[in-house]
Amino acid sequence: MALVERTDTDGIAILSLNRPNTLNALSPALFEALRAHVDSIGAQTETVGCVILRGEGRSFSAGNDLTAIQNGERAPTPHFQAETLDAIERLPQPVIAAVQGHCYTGSLELALACDLMIAGESAKFCDTHGKWGMSPTWGMSQRLPHRIGLLAAKEMMFSGRVIGGAEAVTMGLANQCVADAELDAAAVAMARRFLANSWFTLRTDKMLINGGLDRTFADGLAFERENSPGAGPDMAERLAAFSKT
Q: What is the CATH number of the domain that holds 146?
């Protein structure tokens, strides 16, 4: 049984965390499987326009697999998990996290590495680093404030309280909240809306947005002017099709 399964449909690559019996706990071996898929997808921009990351069973993921750590499992390098999240964030394609059930700590960091998020009504988001006397190394202290703002991130991290799917939308953690039975379909529908537009522009938008985040506003504007690749290879065809309507 693959720890991470990949299914491709109409330009969408769906990656499914596949340890439902452990609530998709993030073991080092699962991260190795995930990284292999991510690296492969990053090189497939002509056939993959959007990515969905989801979990099999009743939870997206309960978080880092503490049992695996206690049993001596180790990732290939000291920061392999964090670097895998960086690789997801750097994927040329937009990445949508589809989250139901538990999304705790390490799995919240994983979901935050995705560009967008759809939450099921059962979704439970929580940072439990404080509960276990641990500290974040996978990006929580940076990505969570960037996503929901400084005050909300500090409150969420300091308290360790659980955030439901509807509240996640209100605070800007997720784009929308749907019934669990509709979660996968909602993620696919969002991806298809994106893919109806130019894949070239999707990749360009993501590159420019991410590139600007590390800069001041003025430097971000300059980054856009200096790095925007201009017209895409499909622009003429799209304009011609529009003129015929």
A: 3.90.226.10
Please list, in sequence order, all residues whose beta carbon lies within 8 angstroms of the beta carbon of residue 97, skipping any fewer than 6 positions away: 52, 53, 54, 60, 110, 111, 114, 116, 117, 118
- Same domain for 8 and 107, yes or no, is yes
Nearest to 148 by CA among 170, 166, 172: 172
- Per the CB < 8 A criterion, the answer to whether 84 and 38 are in contact is yes
Residue 87 structural domain? 4-195
- The whole-chain average pLDDT of the chain stands at 95
Say how far apart CA 211 and CA 224 lie, in whole Å: 8
- pTM of the complete model: 0.96
* Residue where one domain finishes, among candidates 159, 175, 195: 195
**pLDDT(67) > 90:** no
Please tell me the distance from the alpha carbon of residue 27 to that of residue 29, in angstroms, as a whole number. Answer: 5
Mind listing the pLDDT tens digit for each residue in 79-122?
A: 999 999 999 999 999 999 999 999 999 999 999 999 999 999 99
Least Cα distance to 113 among 10, 3, 34, 7 occurs for 34
172 in the Ramachandran plot: left (φ > 0), alpha (ψ -120 to 50) or beta?
A: left
Q: Which residue has the higher pLDDT, 99 or 214?
A: 99
Inter-axis angle of helices 140-148 and 150-159, to 10 degrees?
Answer: 130
Neighbours of 49 (CB within 10 A): 25
Last residue of a domain, one of 195, 215, 235: 195
